[in-house]
Design goal:
Strand order of the largest sheet: 1-2-4-3
Number of helices: 15
Order of helices and strands: HHHHEEHEEHHEHHHHHEHEHHE
């Protein structure tokens, strides 16, 4: 007898989200194994999450790396390594962790390094160290991103530092409450000491619709691009064993879904790539873009310049930390710039002119984009897996 397509984890949660959490009857056979395999009762636990709980353990300089590894990272790829001595920390790109055609020119990889560098520098002050930074100190090497030299200095635990263990990418629905102009101005001012880096806000209905439309079209283009779709899917960790083994990637827990929907989704068979693609499109269209209170785009003079990327990443991390400290939800949304770079790679600029045309100021290019708002509940605050400092140092 013919049967319909198998319901998988992200396929279910996509449908459940659209239906408002419609009831699902799960057969008893195999339920216990599914609960174990999906980590239904273990969210945020185990070795893959220890870095969040022990980030202040130990002493400098390793303690600074423990803060750095909790930074935002594209697709949670964590493409960084650190060389540590008592007075110096060197930050390197781990190009074995590239996200492939999602990031063909290492834009996001280097932005992620900037995020890690910002956390490290926030932690250095908190631990009584004055830091001197040289970016890309090895001529001709985009892999050696920064050298941080440390000397004794006054200690101060800033609000940004204190927000490090609470920062999350929040993919859930936001409320209709607008982010006040004063808060947006304060966020923009975080770029003041970062050469060449700026921020453009999109707050009107018309502007949010323009950006939201391009976000959705870019997501559809990525899922329609077989290689980009594959590169995206390989970073999704379906089982609890995968999460604990890799300590990276995207998980069902971090998708901003309700606790019930997430738990039921984990009981189903592991998701397929087409189901994952559909889920992402549905979430972008039905949850994320309609509830953005505002979008922000970090801008630089040259988005291909490694130094601008590193400084732009530092700003992005500061924004993540400031919004966390002030009760504002944030989601880094990278589909537009991923398509810009992919279209450049294949020589077919379809969405690129419209994406570049979003910016008001001549001579500026978009580096990364995000949405902000106020979370509608607490379901977007779950931890993502992280590799601890001792696994990323040499």
């Amino acid at each position: 007898m013919a049967t319909g397509p198998r319901t998988t984890r992200r396929g279910f949660v996509s449908g459940a989200t659209r239906a408002g959490g419609a009831a699902l009857v799960v057969a008893a056979g195999g339920l216990s194994y599914r609960a174990y395999d999906g980590g239904v009762f273990e969210a945020g636990r185990g070795d893959a999450f220890e870095a969040w709980d022990h980030w202040q353990d130990g002493a400098p300089p390793l303690a600074l790396v423990s803060a750095a590894v909790l930074a935002a990272s594209p697709h949670n790829s964590q493409a960084w390594t650190f060389h540590v001595t008592p007075t110096q920390i060197d930050l390197f790109a781990d190009q074995t962790r590239s996200t492939g055609t999602l990031d063909p020119f290492d834009r996001e990889l280097q932005v992620g390094l900037g995020c890690a560098l910002e956390n490290l520098l926030q932690a250095s002050v908190a631990h009584g160290r004055r830091a001197t930074v040289r970016t890309f100190p090895t001529p001709g090497s985009p892999v050696h991103a920064a050298t941080v030299t440390l000397v004794a200095g006054p200690g101060y635990r800033s609000p940004l530092y204190r927000a490090i263990p609470d920062r999350r990418t929040d993919r859930s629905a936001y409320t209709t409450r607008p982010v006040p102009p004063a808060a947006r101005a304060r966020i923009a001012s975080l770029a003041r000491d970062l050469p060449g880096v700026g921020l453009q806000w999109f707050t009107t209905d018309a502007d949010r619709n323009r950006v939201g439309t391009l976000m959705l079209e870019a997501a559809e283009a990525i899922t329609g691009d077989q290689q980009q779709s594959r590169d995206s899917f390989r970073l999704f960790r379906s089982s609890w064993d995968e999460i604990q083994r890799h300590k990276d990637g995207l998980t069902l827990d971090a998708q901003g879904l309700s606790e019930l929907t997430t738990a039921i989704g984990k009981l189903l068979p592991a998701t397929t790539r087409p189901a994952g693609d559909r889920f992402w499109i549905d979430q972008t269209r039905d949850t994320q873009t309609p509830t953005a209170a505002a979008y922000g785009i970090v801008t630089v003079p040259d988005a291909s310049d490694p130094a601008h990327r590193l400084n732009g990443g530092r700003l992005l991390q500061r924004i993540h930390l400031w919004t966390t400290a002030n009760g504002i939800a944030l989601q880094h949304m990278n589909q537009m710039t991923e398509r810009v770079d992919r279209e450049r790679q294949v020589g077919r600029p379809v969405l690129t002119p419209r994406i570049l045309g979003l910016l008001d100021e001549a001579g500026r290019e978009p580096l990364v984009a995000f949405r902000v708002g106020y979370a509608d509940g607490g379901d977007g605050r779950r931890k993502s897996p992280r590799r601890p400092a001792n696994e990323v140092t040499r």
